[in-house]
Write a structure and sequence with these properties.
The protein is an all-alpha fold. The chain has one domain: MetI-like (MetI-like fold), CATH 1.10.3720.10. Helices cover 75% and strands 0% of the residues. The protein has helices at residues 3-77, 96-127, 132-145, 149-163, 170-194, 198-206, 211-239, 243-246, 279-288, 294-328. α1 (3-77) crosses α10 and α3 crosses α5 (170-194).
């Protein structure tokens, strides 16, 4: 047999061996792929089960807290006169003045913080150059949002109350709360503006609009649902804050006269230079200085505070969906 015949025979033998081994290799590969899919499926089920348990645990914990507060305080909160009587009423001590101070403090805080936060977010998204100054500003905002409330309250007491000379007042408390609110609102508004598609900016600029006109007429309407949702949610946090207000707006129960026409009188409800006692501070005061019957008032006040915070969250979702339909045609 010649060398050519030997090479031909070896090639045929190799081809036959390869043909015989191909089905076996394919079967092994199929088994490996099936095992891999089964392993991935088991891992996915385990991860899904763990995450479901965590979410369920959080929901059960939240529901337990809400139900416990409602059970303890709903009876007192629904007592006739509890929401409409002052705390010094001899028959049914109520929380009228504290409820008024809470909402009034919230309104003053939002009037101060929303324009500042809106301007800061627009500048960071649309105008600020990408350099170390912008990075430092973003870091400062994040740091401010993580400060303990007691630290902010002490700073507000030293600066707003003492240095500025405004004393224990609604204005000092509102400015202290503004320090909490600005970081939250800036991040919320900034994220809402960044989520607007770039094509809308480019289309507006291509039509000859200036950057400011594009921001006012295109970006803000498109981002308004998310902005309003963020504002309402931040309002819920401000509404329940206590530590910062103890040192800035005071904790003594208010004595208000809604018929007063002197806006600088200590009893005028609209005077921003008078002390105030919000619902959260009132709860702290009653628990730190308990008196006869104060426990029921504490739980009733906590129920009202909880209901207001839940209302803020529900209102945020409703307003967000409503504005999304009206402004974005979604």
């Amino acid at each position: 047999m010649t060398n050519a015949d030997q090479r031909t025979a070896a090639t045929k033998t190799s081809t036959a061996a390869t043909g015989a081994g191909a089905p076996a290799a394919a079967a092994v590969g199929q088994r490996d792929l099936t095992a891999h899919v089964n392993r991935i499926g088991r891992q996915d089920k385990i991860a899904t089960g763990i995450l479901t348990f965590i979410v369920g645990f959080v929901l059960v914990l939240l529901a337990a807290i809400v139900v416990y507060i409602l059970v303890r305080g709903a009876g007192r909160a629904l007592t006739p006169g509890f929401l409409t009587n002052p705390s010094n009423d001899d028959v049914v001590p109520g929380i009228l003045y504290q409820l008024w101070d809470s909402f009034y403090m919230l309104i003053v805080t939002l009037i101060i913080s929303v324009p500042i936060s809106l301007g800061a977010a627009i500048f960071l998204v649309e105008y600020a150059p990408d350099n170390w100054i912008t990075s430092a500003a973003s870091t400062a905002i994040e740091t401010l949002s993580s400060l303990p409330s007691i630290v902010v309250g002490m700073f507000g007491s030293l600066f707003f109350v003492v240095v500025m000379g405004w004393g224990i007042s609604i204005l000092s408390g509102a400015l202290a709360l503004t320090m909490f609110n600005i970081p939250i609102l800036v991040r919320t508004i900034q994220q809402a503006l960044e989520d607007v598609p770039r094509s809308q900016r480019d289309a507006a600029l291509a039509m000859g609009l200036t950057r400011w006109e594009t921001t006012v007429n295109v970006l803000l309407p498109a981002a308004m649902p998310a902005i309003v949702t963020g504002i309402v949610i931040s309002a819920g946090r401000v509404f329940g804050e206590a530590a910062a207000l103890i040192f800035t707006s005071g904790s003594a129960p208010s004595r208000l006269n809604f018929a007063s026409t002197n806006f600088f009188a200590p009893t005028n409800p609209f005077n921003i230079f008078r002390p105030a006692c919000t619902l959260a501070v009132y709860i702290w005061r009653l628990t730190s200085e308990p008196t006869a019957g104060s426990t029921e008032i504490v739980w009733g006040t906590a129920t009202v505070l909880l209901a207001c915070v839940l209302l803020f969250n529900v209102l945020a979702r409703v307003l967000g969906k409503f504005l999304a339909r009206r402004l974005t045609a979604e």
